[in-house]
Amino acid sequence: MKIFILTLTTLALSMTLSAQTLEKMQWFNEPENWTIKNNSLTMQVTPQSDYWRISHYGFTVDDAPFIYTTRGGEFEVKVKISGDYKVRFDQAGLMLRIDKENYIKAGIEYVEGKYNLSCVVTHHTSDWSVIELDKPVEAVWIKAVRRLDAVEIFYSFDDVNYTMMRNCWLADNSPVMVGMMAACPDGNGFEARFESFQIKHLPDQRRLEWLKNNAE
Fold first, then answer.
1. Considering the domain 2-203, what is its CATH architecture?
2. Which of 36, 50, 80, 118 could form a disulfide with 185 if both were Cys (CB 3.0 to 4.6 A apart)?
């Protein structure tokens, strides 16, 4: 029995990332124009759209394009992001969303003529953290790892070396919509591109610990 449990655990932990079929994903606020080709998504971002709740600005918006799949447990997800950013707050990134009051979005945001690694965490009200880049970048990879009640957000410029940019709370044991979003709060829209979207299911940590402590 111990060998069987260890074998299952090893197989689960060694699962490789596989591409999520974009055509099977669902839209929340579908943009007017978008295309999928070779597991890459290009969208014309809806003008005057965003995700934000209450804090600092005093308003709530929940109307930007978001394409997603639903996951019920723990997972790792990553995507390569690029865009023709034009005006203040143009943004594109990953999004993890339980509902309108609980979500995380992380990616690139164009602010005051500079590229920023940006993360908004919303639990009833939104917060915003940024890492200003010293020069424009052609693309960035964003990765999120959901474990128990925490999500770790990482960025990379080569899909090899990843650096953590945020560790934040998200309720566990709750289904999560996970996918790609883009927003254009101030402008008339822009083109955002997402390549190599990949998602991997991770075995539940509590379950693995239980199996370890209760092996026959």
1. Sandwich (2.60)
2. 50
